[in-house]
């Protein structure tokens, strides 16, 4: 144990796999550990480099093991896969992690604090509730459509359908249908109240945090987008430039080039999909205003004139990502004399 230099830890729910190597990379051991034995095992080790795949529980274990004096690094699972020699076993995965963590060009995931994870949980809970509300609304629309009752698209028009369900003297609904759909309508109301409560908490935090306040000065960036950036991108200094950050979000073309021929496809869709969707939605809102506003910046008008609307939205989202990196890395706020007034949470 005194000669261990690198540890590859394959995480699991109950049974973990740990691979140890010396300073030259030669394997020393590859053994299993029960969940309760992990911290006791690392307490006995001298300070070493510990690698783990970034996953749901990786940040917790990274903090605990780092508190014991070890240098812990999280690796994206996709970057570990090429080091797996053959098959899918815990022992092979732990060995691959041990080899990947010592690579000079390897990219690592910043370790999140418990507070950063909690902030992300608020956003994920809101997204889950919004998805459940959408499912309930779709179910209500579909069931009423079977009885010939429809309403215009949009969440605002669902209230008319809910009023029909709750109107006891409406003969278009059989009693059994009204009994069942009333439960769906009540669920939609309950989900809406919970979503509003979470959104108020997000807005309050955005007003309190200096970084979030500066991010919301960017047209198309609201409280939810700012909170998502702070929760999911804890350290923008890990990106060499604004272009690297935009590429990480997945808003740059995916290259497929060889033999001196440059071939660019659609956007790569890398990084976090929630953050990318929020940036594209914010860019879409800005472009919709710019399309009919004479005060819009000329370059936005020119972009809309020469590119399809959705292509322009992705291009603007790319620009927004680069501005976000600049604000978080270099400080300051976004200032533009022709800034479009933006409202809303996104």
Tell me the strand percentage band: 5-15%
Element pattern in H and E:
EEEHEHEHHHHHHHHEEHHH
State Rg: 25 Å
Q: Strands across the major sheet, in which order? A: 3-2-1-4-5
Instruction: Tell me the distance between the termini.
Output: 52 Å
Query: What is the 3D form?
Result: globular
**Strand segment count:** 7
How confident is the prediction overall: mean pLDDT? 91
- Structural class, by secondary structure, is alpha/beta
Number of helices: 13
* Largest sheet features: 5 strands, mixed
The helix fraction, in percent, is 40-55%
| Poorly predicted ranges | 339-344
Protein architecture, described:
With 346 residues, the protein is α/β, with parallel strands linked by helices. The protein contains 13 helices and 7 strands. Strand 2 (15-21) and strand 3 (27-34) form a beta hairpin. Helix 7 crosses helix 9, helix 9 packs antiparallel against helix 11 and helix 10 packs across helix 13. The longest helix is centred in the middle third of the chain and has 34 residues, at 175-208. Mean pLDDT is 91; it is low at 339-344.
Describe the secondary-structure layout.
Layout lengths: L5 E5 L4 E7 L5 E8 L3 H6 L5 E5 L4 H9 L4 E5 L1 H4 L9 H11 L13 H33 L11 H9 L8 H34 L1 H6 L7 H10 L9 H8 L3 E3 L8 E4 L5 H20 L5 H9 L2 H22 L16
Parallel strand pairs: 1-4, 4-5
Antiparallel strand pairs: 1-2, 2-3, 6-7
Helix pairs in contact: 5-7, 5-9, 7-9, 9-11, 10-13, 11-13
